[in-house]
Amino acid sequence: MFASTLLALGLVVPFAAAQSMMHTVIVGGSAGNVTFTPEAISASVGDQVMFQFQQKNHSATQSSFAAPCSHKDGGFTSGFLPVAANVTDNFPSYTITVNDTEPIWVYCGQNAGLPTSHCGMGMVFAVNCGPDGSNTSFTSFKNAALAIGQQLQAQANATSTMGSSYGSASAAPAETSTVAAAPPAVSGTSTSSGAATTHTVSVGANGGLEYSPNEITAAAGDVVVFNFMAKNHTITQSSFADPCLKLEKTSTTGQIGFDSGFMPVAANSSSFPSFSIVVNDTTPVWAYCRQTGHCESGMVFAINANDSSSKSFSAFQLLANGSNTTTGEPASSNSTTSSNVSGASRTVGTSAGLALGLVGALFAVVM
């Protein structure tokens, strides 16, 4: 599991501003792992769980303790998120929010109902399960999934034996390659969960050079998720005075700022990368797309801009439109570094499970 790191530089904010935690769970892996890593976690109300999908083709689908390998009515599912063997970064991810302390049971839905069922092989996960020996322990949940796998295998063997008198048994079908449905391209979706609110921003929806919405108001501890919908964009922190330059190039205090890196999305894609930040305080946060000419075309974004002051979002966008700065980088660029963040912190990219927080001058490792 990736470590989540808090790097405190810049503004002094109280530690209580970090009202929620991001837990990273690796799904699959380069060795063809049929596992969630870790298999179980404890989480508080308001925490988020980010499933990072690595090699092969898996899902994170909610089930129940009683039926570990069946989709729970009304439960979440990531859909299938295939990852090629040669992919080393920009892994797709799917994030849920913990709304209470009740156990959450999850499985991979690949090859459901078949002897090669991933769930039947023990590919399950839990949040806030009971301790070993209890009625809701993770061990009991996983054993129930393995029992289903054994039953499916026994049925397949029986069918194969019967079929030998009448010809060869059919081979098991290949892994499903269906990918997750597109995330909703709804402007400014906000979901409240305990102490924190998650704000959803669409990037480049319908081929437009815009963030939708292009500005939001957020409280300390809120999460902003950027869903990249089309073409090849970034979300990169800048400053009000220099809207089309990385913050690190203009800061006089050593701030670097968050940067998603380029997130290319094919025209026929139905799987969309995302990038998230956590808002540390109510200081305005300014950002832009660093693809060639996009910032100068007004593709900028703000959090907590004071629209009744001279530093309003409209003024920020006007500065970007009038910028003579050449901000673009080659579309193949895949830079993803970020630290020393002002006002917000990156918690989850599509490749790294790192949290870069701004909590005074504190450096701590969590998770």
Automatic annotation (TrEMBL):
<feature type="signal peptide">
    <location>
        <begin position="1"/>
        <end position="18"/>
    </location>
</feature>
<dbReference type="InterPro" id="IPR008972">
    <property type="entry name" value="Cupredoxin"/>
</dbReference>
<keyword id="KW-0732">Signal</keyword>
<dbReference type="InterPro" id="IPR052953">
    <property type="entry name" value="Ser-rich/MCO-related"/>
</dbReference>
<protein>
    <submittedName>
        <fullName>Cupredoxin</fullName>
    </submittedName>
</protein>
